[in-house]
User: Which sequence fits this backbone?
């Protein structure tokens, strides 16, 4: 069974630039999550989708972050404009039951 | 919100049993307890999940007392490859209400030869 795919694996941008991350969940998984993990901390949930609807986006900085999951499969997370404090690993996970999540390898973002 | 508290770090030696305790005083009736393992430069990986009493699988055991305000992850006979960060996560299995999925800071387990 193929795992959760994410791209790119690494991204370096200047502050105030825009960036987008892509996630392809495990086939058939209805729930998709985006997390932000700052070095030395646990993952912080940014947004949770159930199929193509948003379940929880309470910790998503909506003034600069946006996410979509068209057709209930792939998802894109965008940051516009990026700030220095956005430097982190962005993890995508999917599940067919809540709390048993399968994580992708993550995208390491560096904002200069 | 059911927040969790874990020790920041633990040290052990190969072959020993390791027990990591997580406190979750505000756990809700419909919350389950789940543990994840994370190696450097990788995403977390599911280890075990339980609701009450004891759960065992091929890699770990999870002990949950009757009041469910804490839980203990038990790793039997650890090896060097068990060196990782372990997260305790509390939340509903079929959740959807805001802010239910919270990872704490985790416990960094170091296994020495």
Assistant:
């Amino acid at each position: 069974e193929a795992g959760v795919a994410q791209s790119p694996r690494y991204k370096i941008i200047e502050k105030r630039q825009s960036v987008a991350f892509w996630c392809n969940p495990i086939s058939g998984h209805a729930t998709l999550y985006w997390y932000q993990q700052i070095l030395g901390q646990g993952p912080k949930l940014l947004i949770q989708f159930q199929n193509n609807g948003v379940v929880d986006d309470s910790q998503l900085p909506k003034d600069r972050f946006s996410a979509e999951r068209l057709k209930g499969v792939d998802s894109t997370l965008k940051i516009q404009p990026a700030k220095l404090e956005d430097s982190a690993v962005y993890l995508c996970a999917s599940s067919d039951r809540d709390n048993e999540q399968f994580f992708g390898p993550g995208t390491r973002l560096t904002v200069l | 919100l059911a927040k969790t508290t874990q020790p920041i770090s633990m040290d052990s030696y190969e072959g020993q049993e390791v027990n990591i305790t997580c406190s979750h005083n505000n756990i809700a009736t419909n919350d389950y307890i789940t543990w994840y393992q994370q190696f450097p430069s990788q995403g977390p990986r599911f280890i075990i999940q339980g609701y009450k009493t004891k759960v065992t699988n091929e890699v770990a055991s999870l002990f949950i007392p009757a009041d469910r305000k804490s839980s203990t992850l038990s790793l039997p006979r650890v090896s060097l490859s068990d060196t990782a960060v372990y997260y305790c996560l509390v939340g509903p299995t079929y959740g959807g209400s805001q802010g239910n999925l919270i990872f704490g800071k985790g416990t960094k387990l170091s296994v020495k030869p």
Observations:
- The first strand of chain A starts at residue 5 and ends at 7.
- Chain A touches chain B at residues 4, 33, 35, 41-45, 48, 50, 55-56, 58-59, 91, 93, 97-106 (CB under 8 Å).
- Chain A has a mean pLDDT of 93.
